[in-house]
Amino acid sequence: LIICIGLVSLTSCETKKPAIPRDLxxxxxxxxxxxxxxxxxxxxxxxxxxxxxQSDEVQPIATYLAEILRPATGFEIPVxxxxxxxxxxxxxxxxxxxxxxxxxxxLITKENGIVIKANxxxxxxxxxxxxxQLLPASIEKGTKVSDTLLVATGIITDSPSYGYxxxxxxxxxxxxxxxDVKRVIDxxxxxxxxxxxxxxxxxxxxxxxxxxxxxxxxxGGSSEVGxxxxxxxxxxxxxxxxxxxQDRFITIVPEIDMPGHTNAALASxxxxxxxxxxxxxxxxxxVGFSTLCIDKEITYKFIDDVxxxxxxxxxxxxxxxxxxxxxxxxLKDFIPFINRAQKIVEKHGKKVxxxxxxxxxxxxxxxxxxxxxxxxNAIKGIGQGAKVLMSPATKAYLxxxxxxxxxxxxxxxxxxxxxxxxxxxxxxxxxxxxxxNIIGIDAPLWTETVQTMDDIEYLxxxxxxxxxxxxxxxxxxxxxxxYKVRLGNHKDRLEAxxxxxxxxxxxxxx
Length: 510
Ligand code: TNX
Prior knowledge:
Layout: E1 2-3, E2 14-15, E3 35-45, E4 50-53, H1 59-73, E5 79-81, E6 90-95, E7 105-110, E8 113-118, H2 121-134, E9 149-158, E10 164-170, H3 178-190, E11 195-199, E12 201-202, E13 205-206, H4 215-218, H5 235-246, E14 251-258, H6 263-268, H7 297-312, E15 318-322, H8 331-347, E16 351-355, E17 368-371, H9 375-383, E18 387-390, H10 393-396, H11 418-422, E19 438-445, H12 453-460, H13 463-472, H14 480-489, H15 491-496
Ligand TNX binds next to loops.
């Protein structure tokens, strides 16, 4: 059936294709939902579609969905409070106690409308992300698409395996501005990630304004690896990032790395050095040569001020204190330093995360140990009652090259191809660390070799989709041969989002 509208030549005639109902069971969702029940028909988003909600706290999520659908459809897609029963052609978002999991949701699609139910707004947001992936990839282009917007009918019941699903971005080795961080947040939210850990200080740069110690950014933030310009976030910019992330149900976890990885701070304030002399700024990529002066009282005044200002800008429960690779801090100094740093963070109302070496110290009851290199450290932490955040470098490090010819990245831990980043399980990775010990996964992107947003995307995508699924989908429901097909089917979506992904030959890209 061909319908020509207006006085246009035959070649530009619109072809109205009959709608083919979609099969919900065959949708290519990442992360894979826990339960899918297809009913073999479809709902069409059209000019009559509206988004309805009941309580005020849901309104921003309804608006978020409308803002995705409006440019793609050209339709008005009004957002309104539901007064009585939702009218047909609705997409209805509702909070209910019948869903029990904090981040879980149910997405029910019938021929006359869609209902997303959740216990908390976060669950509704994840239901919206699932709905987004049920629509044609072309909606991600942000411009009007010609595809008919059909959603397959059925019920999806879903909730995550782990509560902490994150990525770490190192903004110290190379600095990335607010817009880049926001793009990372947007892309992570599509895959239901809920934490962005920002590595805000290291030898090569201090990236967060601390008003009581202004030289940290003025001098310590002025360069980066290779000697380029560097940069930093003002407190206003940082708060803007925190809010932007919060609106997408992502909590920012700020890290100030110490007592090692502190050359930028030491270069900014001579009094922080045991010899009272400030070193030069550092533009190289060696690790393990710097340390705060453990014996000086000013060191603790410094970290009290820094954590105080940081805690005041941090709605999330955690502050990360680093603690890795303090090779020039003897253990007899490292232990009391970490003990005291934890107490200072706690005094400011936050819980501590630290790299696995902190397990040598006496951990506070709520401290989390981030496993990156030594299982024995993580196990030592568990012995003290700590929980573990899983980031084993051989699987979860996003700065590792895919193979020996990857143009950027490192390979000190491993080459990590897309299948290797997917084919493992948090709870069986290390004997002695099991599911009840683990809060989730954090995938770090260190940026010694990463200079642009394109570089970030190339190392993060597509591996992060698999890492997101490791955090969300039960292990018993995951296998590479099935996943690789779903990933291959995401090609259109990655391209519509304009992501510079690595086109691994191990994935059957469609
Ligand atoms: C080790 S991982 C580091 C970082 C480097 C990274 C490079 C960790 C806690 N420390 O300082 O950037 O290797 O892969």
